[in-house]
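Researcher: Next entry: Sugar kinase (Streptomyces collinus).
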Amino acid sequence: MTARAGDHDVLVLGGAGVDTIVHVPELPLPYADSYMIDSGIRTRAGQTGDFVSVGLAALGLRTHHLDLLGDDPEGDLVRALHRERGIGLTALPQPAGTKRAVNLVGPDGRRLSLYDTSRSHPGDRFPQELLRDLARAGRHVHVTITQPCAEALPVLAGTGVPLSTDLHDWDGENPYHEPFALAADVVFLSAAALDDPERTMRRIAGRGRAEVVVATAGAEGAHLLADGELTRIPAVPPPAPVVDSNGAGDAFAAAFLYGRLTGEPPARCARFGAVAGAYACTVPATRTEAVGRDELLAGAARSAV
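Model: Predicted structure:
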């Protein structure tokens, strides 16, 4: 495949897969020989790259997704999701199979994810020419931290296309995340595992190329570091009852990038992210759904009052 300039706005790299959703009576789940799951156990397409892609597309950004997929039922679910949402997909063959996870979801919407790391090989790589073509065909690249995206970072840096990444629940120390943190122009992460979010955020900005660093903090909002200034972004009340936190960080990133690519200042981009993240918490884990542009803008207007 050879991409043409202007084919898409954003290339999303990695993070395609399926989740099996199990609603449990509480988290942590006490040991028992068995549990009866009356709500059912369901498998649907949607991991971090899929969620970001769906979020971007729902906001009107032309989106292309590149990853490795297996020739298996799980891969078929991922392909169908992209087809249904009008999202371009380049799926390279993955003999080990499509990435998958099991998500245990508690009554309060909290999630425990069990990732199957056997669905990749150490030698997996994205073809460099294909990667360059797809990156240069767009305005922005969002890089997930799934394997083998780390090996793609030097190639992407050479294209000159702006990069973003999401470090998820990085503790600020794990060396696996550092190449992503230092290579991206926009860095998202969760504050959940950080004792001092500001210290980690300033370290990312000081050592890498990040112009903006955002640490999300759930119901406490988010921390925004832009132009050397740390700002607290308040949380936005969800538009419906909270049922699941899965995908909230991906929704935040997608809406932030929508704001950035439409010329909004960082604080307004972060407000967009807060609105989208709150919306995502109202979507059951068994669905892959994102806030639309009209609802995002209306929510951002309400939160500014």
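Model: Note for the record: The domain at 10-304 is CATH 3.40.1190.20 (UDP-N-acetylmuramoyl-L-alanine:D-glutamate ligase).
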